[in-house]
Every structure is written in structure tokens, then in C-alpha cells.
């Protein structure tokens, strides 16, 4: 039942049968297009929409003069400012007007004819140039801004080697294939949104509160979401705009962001500047770790990239200090991007560990083993489960790490310098409350319902597997309905939380259904049931077999349903996933463009429900990490106050030719603490630790230590 | 994207006539560049004259060399056995360009006339850019210019020409045959593609209603060796940071008897390393003397702060390409 199961939605996606937010038809569909600010900070001094309004097919043009008034949204993270409410601009790309037309081309044409005058205000977009940095107040589940355990000064004093270094990572954009889109319909006082989102309930909360609509008059649907990577987690102005204008105009309205707009409309991974102090004895015991992080936030809201979080838990060390500061800049609010926090953060820590290993002349894997943390060194709590030692061992075996020569530049093939590097991956486990419902029909069909999302990770495939495991039936007998705020409530599909959270609720619902069936069939809810087609076998001392149609007819019901829910509870455990990533790179001696030749990654992530979809997540994460290490970077032109390249020619994502042989494995594990099904989260873990493993391999190949991402050719000349 | 008229030309005369009749008309071949420019509002022609039906797509092979019809697609050029046999550097350049899907549509004529990838020129909204909006200034000189030119640029424009095939064609001494109502003429690539000067918006020597009909590629000198080398961060599907095409004669004592070298990604057109070509004659095929000769051409290189590294990358790319062509790598 659980185990390798190919994606059930694969054929629908490949053939185009799967319908995404902007693919729903409506007879009265209109198209909205955004006018965005070309300057990063300004007051709008004049508005002239007359030329735009004269374009044939244009229905209306909205600016802050005539847009409906909105209320401050509550109940879910909202990443923007309220759109079209005042004459202020806080970032380049902020929506300042919206055209609605019968056809998309007409709307686009009119966008170019909306005249807005701006009185520019001074704007800083370079976070390193901001003098007034602030102490952030992160959400509780991310931990506090600063932590300290032990005596840092004493740890440094007692060390034989003290590394002090500064690391940086680039601004990056999520760039899912599906640009964000919302189709909003207002009919009979009810607002229905089909949205490209990672959280239908988030959208529901923000839209209903901003539009001041009762909760039961708003419904948000997302049958498929074409990738998100964090960009569709928070709610953003375009979703509010679509909802607000559908209500204003009535009927159906579709708003699809252009690729260029997707660079300014739903956040980005902020660049980071990280300062590390790593102190160790000659024997390779860490005595002090200090990790200070600075990243930008917007001038109108707060987001903090918790890059030092990984350093709080990664290694046994008596003194650990971490701090996070934010610098407000005139951009859209940064937001989580696969993998937030530890993604950029473990780059700094894991390169620092490699540097100390080189300094001490200790094998980098051996140094990590010597500092293995048996308990969370900051909280002092035991880990829920942790199989990192097994990851190191299995990864090293698969990679052949034992044959690695210590000296840099010692592996060479013709013009290619070869390097081997490794890194540890650590990622906090995020958990959300979830509810689900399971219904058995007389024909044997089990319909599981949970309002979660399918963003490409395999939700449609594995939730039925979990329910089938409880009911004893083949997974093909179970279908999942998701992406609908009318269904039982779940959290957003973010923080690698869906399998463990929703999966626990689905399991609970299936268990409740089994108990109910047992009760109805035999009067004893504890009797064991097994479903196969329309046969229900109940074991209660004796074994009895029922035909569902007969049983249900006798009971006078069409179907039998039960609900279940799951909630994360405080349990005095530190919950993290772990991994060991090994990389081989080749760097040409003269034209030093690093190329990854192979990656081996072994993970400790609790129970793996479906090795196929899990492997898909991890290989995707590794590819993501190759992008972070070698390609992805959004450059800002600080004079113009904008991202320079807002397209996928300038923003480089890896292509197949950049992706070598990827060897992924999991250690056998069941986590009884993190969830109801033995699982922790995996989706983002795969992109942690890849960049430092590659950077360390580049150092091993070339002797050049690069402390900023992405590693560029000019860094290695 | 604005509405435009669409004319499907049935032959080159018809195309030239249709263009001449409409001052705001532009020819469209594969459309892989022009349509993007239209959608982003970078170009807004009143009419498109579709030239894909003009029958100019043949690839011919004779004793003097190749004639590539302007409408031959990149896939067609690279798949042609005669081209593969006679001009492997051109095949290497073509196959390193874009993606298979794009190469199925992209024509060799359109490839030479594709416009720069400078991010300011390509922005989704009009930013200061003298190529896009004459007189508006150049954002790249004081802005992001990592990929900008190191040869032949001015303060008006530091953009580069993005084509791979053009670089190979330049090293092969190809000429471009063009036709207008006034008749036919042929141009060297250096004549077809203009340097920015103070009018970077005037990118080519073509008149309105003048069509490229073919590219004539002379046979490479007997016994010569060649190579096309492309340096880029992404392993595929990316324009060159720097590229180099080399045609080399090597004598019996492993000395260079003749060299033609063109660099891509360094100027508004393929950049022939004329001084290096001269200095290489008689030079032994090893790294040190080849580098010394190549450096002669880089005395004229001028970089901005953000692309200074491209001078060294350019030198190394040329050295590697020469050594590879000569069989010393
Ligand atoms: C994502 C992407 C990646 C790419 N990567 C590369 C790369 O790595 N290397 C590379 O070299 N190229 C690359 N290209 C560019 C691609 O090769 C060109 O777009 C293509 O060759 C243009 O040919 P076309 O026939 O489509 O031209 P069109 O788009 O039809 O026309 C381009 C221009 O040429 C004019 N024109 C076309 N034919 C004629 C003619 N016969 N006479 C007069 N004028 C004419 C048109 O009016 C227009 O101005 C890439 C393009 C894309 C979209």
C-alpha cells in the first residue's frame, strides 16, 4: 500500500488534462492586466486613464482614485501592501493601476496607455548600504531572532584555530513554470477564486478579511498548482486585486502575472550577508560558533531569513551564539524560498566547517563526526529521531569518500581539475494542524477529502496510499479531493509539512472510518477491518465478510464517512531532518566554469511513505541546489532600483545538461514524535547542503575558497 | 503587443515589394527573435512580411564553398552532410546555439540579425537604452554590464552581438548576399553588422526593403583545421559569455602557417583578432607563444569595472581554441 507508487496525476499533467487556475472557462470571462510602478519609491502626483479607457474592449481602469476600499487583511501572512488604496509607491513593480478588458490583448494594450506621474522619493535597494538595521520579530515557529548558549569568549579563548569569515548568498527568484494566476468569479453574492496557491485557506483568510466578506461567501479552489517553491505561500496583492475587481464588476475575471511581474509580485529569497566565527581545538572539537546574519526586508513589512537557525542545532558545541538583523529596502517583501533559512544558512556554516577542516588537516567528514550532536545543543532537547551518522556512512560508501586525497588540486583529468566536497544538511521540521474526511461508497470507492494543495510534490498519490494502508485496500480504490476551502481545513503546502501533517490527519480519518465500519458491521468498533473492492472483511474473533452494497442497503445508507484530525503537540523533542551531501566537480584549468559531475545524498527524514515521490523531491532539491551554487542570481540595479533581468534568459536556472548523475538514498527510520505516521518533512531538505558541498568541492579542485554564491567563473580565474 | 498587418511573401521580389510599400514593415523569418521583441514592446512594426515562403532555404555545396539560403534553418544547416564535412566549426557553432526546438525554427539569416541580449535593451519596460530608444542613454555603462563588450564599444552602447553562427562565419570569411529593388550586393559580416559609434540603434548596413538572400561561405583553405569554443555558465541553452572560432593552417613542423580568429560575446559584432592572426604565423603550437601572440589583439581591449575579467577570459578562450584547432589539446 505504501511504497513505490507512480504519480497518479502524471498522465493528466503530461496530456494537459490537469486544469490550472488560469485554465477555467467562463462565458463572461474578462481579463485584468496590471500597471506596475517603474520606480522604487514615489508619490503618484497625477493619473490619466482616458487613453487607456478608449481602447476597444476595455471595461474599466482602476487606480487609487476609484478602486474599492479594502480593510487590513488578517488571519494569514500577507506579503504586499493593500493595492490601489493610496498614492504611495514602496517598490518597483508595485501594482498602481489595473485594466480590465474583454480580451487579454486589449488589456495589455491599454496598460501601456495609462499615464501616471511620479514624484520619486529617495530609495535604497542595497541592503548592505542600509545604516539602520533592525532586530526582527520572527514567527514563533522559526525561533527567536537571537540565541546564546554557553560562553562564546571562553570557547574562542580555548581554541587552537579560530575562523572568522564572511559569506554571502544572492537574491533568487522562485520561478515556477506556472506564473501566478487568479480567476475570480462573483455570482449571487458569493466569491469563488481559482488560484495558483500553496494555501487555499491563506487566500481565503486574506481575501475575506480585506473585502470584509463573511467567511461562507468566499470559496478558494486550487486543483493543481504549477509549482510554487514558496512564491505562492503568502498571499500577495494580485490575488486581492482579482477578488476585489470581480466583486466590483460582477462575473468572472482572470488575472495572470507576466513572467516579468513574477519577479516583483510575490517576494524573492533575500540576499544574505553572514559572518561566522568557528573555533576548534587542534583535535577538532568545536568550542565556539557564532553566526550573525543580515538580510533585507521591505520598508513596509517584515520578513527575516533565519540563516543562522541551522547553526543552532548542527553540531555539539558548548558555546553557540546566533543573531539575525534585517535591513529595510525598497523592494517587494522577501519571502520563503526553497529552502528558506537553512538553505542559505548552511552554505555559510558548512563552508566554514570545511575551512576549519583544511586548517586542522582533518578530513572534513571526520571533523563532522567528531562534533556530531547527540542532543540539540541550543535547546538541550533530544532529537525526535536522528539518523545522520548513518547518512554520513552510507553517503561516504556510495561516493567512495575514503579515496579522497587530502591535498587540493590533486585530482586531475587533462584540463579538468576534479574536486570532492561534502556538507551536512539540517532542516527544521515544520508542522501544521490538519483535518481530513474519508467516505466509503457502496461501490467500494473511498473518497478522501482534505483542503490541501498539490504543487507538484505528489499529494494526490500518497494520501490515498496512507488511507489504503489503514483500510487494507489497494491505493487505486482511494481518490483524494483537495484544494478547496469547503473541505476540511489544513495548513499551507510549505515548510515540507504536507505529508506529515495532512498525512497524519488522513490516517486518522481512515482509522475513524475503519472503526465506524467495524461498529456498523459487528457492533464492535475495535474489530479489524480490511477492504477489498466491495468486500469488507471484519475480524472480531471470527472472520466475517460483508458485501458493501448489501451491508449499506441493510443499514439504509449510501455511504459511510468519518473525519479525523491531527495537531502538532509540544513534546520536548527537537525536530529536524538531516542529510549528508557529497559532490564531485570538474573545473577547467583555464576556463574555470565549475561543472557538477555527480552528487550523492543520503537523508534521515523519518518514514518515507513513497520512495518514488520522495526521490523526486530530493532530486529536484539537488537540482535546485546546483542552481543556487552555480547559476541563480537576481542582480539589482541600485540606480534604477529594480531587478535587472526579469526573464528566464537572464535569470539562469539549471538545464538538463547541468544535472549529472544524482544518487539519492534514505536511511530506514520511523519518527514516533514528529507526526502520526512516522514521517518528517522532506521537500526542502533536498536543496540544503548542496551548495556548500559544491563550493567545498570547488575548493578541493582549485584551492580557491569562494564564500559567495553563486560561484562565478571570475571567482576562479 | 500592437496589431500589425501580415503579408505572406511568395518570392523574394514579392517580399521586397511588400516591404518597400510599407515604411514600417519588417521581414519575419523564424520569428524566434522578432516575435519576442514584439511581445515585449521593444519593436512595433506596422506590418510583418513573412519570408518563409520565398524559397530561399536551400543549402548548396560547390568547389568554392557553401551557399546557405537565408531561410535555411539552423537545424537544416547543421544536419547537412556537406556542411558537416567541410565546415565543422560552423556545425559546432550552430549546435551550441539556443535549443533544438528553436533551431528548428530559427533561420541563418535571422540569426545574423538577432538583436542584443543586453538586459536593459531586453527589459519588459523601456529603460534608458540608446539602441531601443535613441538618445535615452545607456544604462549598462554605469549599471549591470558583466556581459558587456570589451571591443569597439562607446559610451553610447556597450552591448554585444549574441550569435554563435556569426562568429564561425566570420572566421570562415563568409559574405552575406543581400538584395533590394536596386539589385544585389554582398557584404562581409564586418560590413553588415555595425559598431555602435554614436548611433547604436543603426545596427546593420541593410536598407529598408533589403533582404539577406544567402550566406556565402568559402571553402576553408586546404588542410586547415578549425574549432568553435563556447564559454558559458550554463552547460546548454545559454548565450556565450565569450566564444571563439578558429581556422588554422599548421605546417609540417607543428608551426602555425595561417590563422583566422573571431571572438564572440566581446563586441557588437564578431571580433576578428587581426593582430593575433598576423602574430601567430610561424608560431609553435604551444600555450606560451600562442598566448603572447593572442595578447597582441587585446592591447585594444577596454573593459568596464564589472566585465574586466572578460579580457582574461577572452585571451584564454582564444588560446584554448587555437590549441584545440591545432590538435595540441
Ligand atoms: C531562448 C533563446 C535562446 C537563444 N540562444 C541562442 C544562442 O545560444 N546562440 C545564438 O546564436 N542564438 C540564440 N538564440 C537566437 C536565435 O538563434 C535567433 O532568434 C534566431 O536565429 C533568429 O532567426 P529567425 O529566423 O527566428 O529570425 P526572426 O526572429 O524571424 O528575425 C530576426 C531579425 O532578422 C530579420 N530578418 C530575418 N530574416 C531576414 C532576411 N532574410 N533578410 C532581412 N532581414 C531578415 C527580421 O526582420 C528580424 O529583425 C536564442 C533565442 C532564444 C529565443
TrEMBL record, chain A:
SUPFAM superfamilies associated with the record: CO dehydrogenase molybdoprotein N-domain-like, Molybdenum cofactor-binding domain
One Pfam family recorded for the sequence: MoCoBD_1
Keywords, alphabetical: Molybdenum, Oxidoreductase
SMART domains xref list: Ald_Xan_dh_C (SM01008)
EC annotation from Swiss-Prot or TrEMBL: 1.17.1.4
Domain Aldehyde oxidase/xanthine dehydrogenase a/b hammerhead residue range list: 15-122
Designated name of the protein: Xanthine dehydrogenase, molybdenum binding subunit
Organism of provenance: Actinokineospora spheciospongiae
Biological classification of the source: Bacteria, Bacillati, Actinomycetota, Actinomycetes, Pseudonocardiales
Automatic annotation (TrEMBL), chain B:
Annotated ranges, domain FAD-binding PCMH-type: 1-222
Superkingdom, taxonomy of origin: Bacteria
Keywords per UniProt: Oxidoreductase
Pfam families in the cross-refs: CO_deh_flav_C, FAD_binding_5
UniProt-recorded Gene Ontology molecular function terms: FAD binding; oxidoreductase activity
Name listed for the protein in its UniProt record: Periplasmic aromatic aldehyde oxidoreductase, FAD binding subunit YagS
